[in-house]
């Protein structure tokens, strides 16, 4: 089966941060790359930032960057955030869709960081391709985890250095391409149509998860289905 048109050349984006709360977490490392139809890297940009706050031990254990290293080798946070935003803006202007696995995490943190440093945020970024949302839509009842590592294993995509921003970004792009090859007949052809489809899918998935959680664990549970930014 031929892959759909949007998957031929993709920009990819990933952040490693100080935590999981999108309102307070700071960027530590970032990658923005471009891959071709075979998943080969055509362009690559990497950043190491000094977030200006302590990096919790738990976060350092995940991505391997300590506060000391970030302070010694990282660029000022505002400068780095500005460069990341500018790079993504340029790729969107070129018409390239940007892949981000669990896009609301990365794009919301980038938005809050831009505002924190007095920078112009991307503002309704798109088109975005989120393999997490697409995978849940095309293979809804598959058992097991839906992490990037699990998805990469399922779709046969190598991921040897998980939680490195570059490795994760590029693997996410290749997972998106694998999904496009396998499920292309049921997916929109254009990146813009694909972006719009994911808005609805993400809302439906959050509503379904909220219903499950309220029935089984917490009657007050709420799930935010906003996509691709919170």
From TrEMBL:
<feature type="domain" description="Exonuclease">
    <location>
        <begin position="9"/>
        <end position="185"/>
    </location>
</feature>
<keyword id="KW-0269">Exonuclease</keyword>
<dbReference type="InterPro" id="IPR012337">
    <property type="entry name" value="RNaseH-like_sf"/>
</dbReference>
<protein>
    <submittedName>
        <fullName>DNA polymerase III subunit epsilon</fullName>
    </submittedName>
</protein>
<dbReference type="Pfam" id="PF00929">
    <property type="entry name" value="RNase_T"/>
</dbReference>
<keyword id="KW-0378">Hydrolase</keyword>
<keyword id="KW-0540">Nuclease</keyword>
<dbReference type="InterPro" id="IPR036397">
    <property type="entry name" value="RNaseH_sf"/>
</dbReference>
<dbReference type="InterPro" id="IPR013520">
    <property type="entry name" value="Ribonucl_H"/>
</dbReference>
